[in-house]
Structure formats: C-alpha cells, structure tokens
Amino acid sequence: MALIEGCRHGIEVTVPLADVQAETKRVETEVAGKARLPGFRPGKAPVSLVRTRFAADIRQDVLEALVPKAFRKAVEAEGLKPVSQPQISEVHFHDGEPLRFKAEFEVEPEFDLGTYRDLPVVYKEPEVNDADITERIEKIREQKAEYINVEPRPLAEGDYAVVSLESLSGAEPPIQQDELMLKMGDENTLAAFTENLTGASPDDVREFDITYPEDYDRKALAGNTVKFRATVKAVRQKELPVVNDEFAQDLGDYKTLEELQETIRKAIQGEREFEAQQDAKSKLIDQLVESHDFAVPEAYVDRQIEMNVDRRLRALAAEGIDPKSIKLDWEKVRESQKDQALKDVKASLLLDKVATAESIDATQEEVDREVQRYAKQQREAVAVVRAKLQKDGTLGRIANSIRTEKTLGFLFERARKSAE
Does position 133 have pLDDT exceeding 60, yes or no? Predict the structure, then answer.
C-alpha cells in the first residue's frame, strides 16, 4: 500500500493462481452451458472448443468476477475505506500465472480536530423599535386594502384604472385581458400606459403603442412595440383599513391593537435573531475551515458540486425555467464551483467531527416532528410519508440535517461573542 497524494492511495493486488484457475473453470463451464456452436446441440459443445471460440469473453468475465472481490479483500486487510471507484491499471493476466493489478482510489480524510469551543465571533443582539412595528403594520394594511369604484370621472395620477386590454399588433400570442387594474403614475406601471390613459373616463376607448424595455421580465414582449386598444371600465381608489382594536381583531385572536403590536414585535425580533445567528454561525464555520488544513477526496468535491448544481436547477425549475434548456459545460462548472464545494465539504466533515466529539445526534422525537411537518405539507398520512422517506433515503438526510443544525447551535452557544 502507498499514499500517493492527499487522500489518494494505491495498492498492488495479487490473486493466487489456484483462485484464478478455479474461477476460469467456473466461467468456462457456465459459457459452455449456454454456447451455441454449429454441429453441436446447445450446451453440448466441448469445453476445449468453447475455450478457444470464446476466449475474450471468458477472460473478461473472469476479470470482472475476480478484480472487485480481490480489491475489496485487499482494502479490508489494510483497514482502508474507499470513497471512490478504484482506477485499475497494469493488469497482468496470463495463463498459468497469478492475476496481478494495481488500483488507485480515495479514502476518507483523517485529521485531528483543533479548537472549536470559545471561538470569537461578532454578534449583536438585534433590536426592534416602534418604527419597525409601524412599517410591518403598514404592509398588512396594504394587503387588506380595498379598491372602491368612484363616480365616473377622468383618470388622474394616483387613480386605479380598470381597463379591458387587447393587442392589435406586435404581440405573439395576442394579448386579451378583460379586466386589468393599473395604478396611474405608479413606478410599476409603464409610463406609456399612464400617459395614454390619463384623462380617459369610463367607456372611453384609446388606441396607442407601447414599446417594452429590452430587459422586460416577459421575454415575449421585451423590446417589442405593441399596439393596444384599451377600454376604460371603471375608476377606483384604494381604501386602507383604520389601525385600531377592530383592525387587530380582524387579523386573528387579538383583543386589542397592543396585543397585535406585541406579537409583531416578537415576530420581528425572532426573524432578526435568526438572521443574525445564521450570519454568526457562517463566520464560525469559516473560522473552522481556515484553521484546519487537511486533504479532501476529489470524489467528495465532485459530489458536492453536483448537489449544488442540482439545487440551483431545482430553484430555476420552481421559477418556471426548464432546466433541460440549460446546457452545462461540466468542466467549466466544476472549475467555477470547486472552491465553494471544497469549503462546503470541509465544513461538513468538521461539523461531523464536532458532533461526534460532543455526542450530538438527532433524537427520534426531532425526526418524527420533521416527518409530521412534511406529511402536513403534502397532506398525506404520516405513516405513508415515513415509508417513502425511508425508502428513498430522505429520512437519513433529515436526521443528518437536524444533527448539523444542533452542532451549529452548539458552536454558537459556546462562542465568545462581542458586539464588534
């Protein structure tokens, strides 16, 4: 056995002649039993003829049977745990001689865990003031706003125009919307709509051209000039609810506005604490990675890159983008993602080491709670969901994820925090 570089090892393996001969005889007998040769009934051809006619197939079958078995036996004898497929080379396989070959492969990294308790990290307990609460309540008011029809009159800035809209040219497929609401003068309304509809009253019909920006989010319209016919159907104004006890009661189990405000304060506090702690935990991981220098198997890095790319493709799919339409140059992707993937792998290995040192594990109750949450999202029976997650290996990943989060929490709790 020899350490080649980093986590890559190499071994030379010898299979005794007796084992080679026994396996060769077994394969020859098996091939002879299936062989179809002219002048012989199926399976009745002499082994000597089969051996000559099917020499290449027999040789390949013997190698495929002996090499993996001999490799596993050799690494077990050396106490090694391969994490990649072995690269087989220098195969010496001749009649009347033992089988010999070399194998290169990667093994799990070995390293000593350095300091991980009492690490310094910048962390300031977040604060929530009255302005934050007011801002959150204003967002809720906007969500609860009502749009009221007003007496027919010409549209002015700040009004909400209800129009039926159809494209006369320039759009493929054609645009046809029976009821579209546009806020006149709003930054989210194309200026050309405001310019052409200002002064129009209900039942008025306007025809005009709209040139869409090159970076318009609907690619079918980006850069196009579309001729529209718009019919004004109504003029509306937005009415916001009054912020009082009744407003709070309409939102849920609150008796007073003060109760709602306190709930909002706690929610904002929780959100900011989570974000601040996530940032601090990220910095703690960076410290761990920087303070531990050890080799990482390329197989782990490649696997991490695949996971990162797959996660990104799934995110694009959720946004309505077909991942199949994206052509990836794997070599370029690997080169651009390698540094981040290496950091991710090191962080994962270090966190696993800390969890083992501190006997941190996911409890059955914690896993059950996550399975129940998932079952509720999917609207399926917990037992059915558990069986699915167990079958596809997700249950183990859930437990690992919980263990990782608990380990990060441990590092944060034991860290030496300072405001600057």
Answer: yes
Q: What pTM does this model have?
A: 0.74
CA pair distance 123, 411, nearest whole angstrom: 13
Looking at per-residue confidence, does 291 or 307 come out higher? 291
What are residue 121's DSSP bridge partners?
417
pLDDT in tens, 188-231: 999 999 999 999 999 999 999 999 999 998 888 999 999 999 99
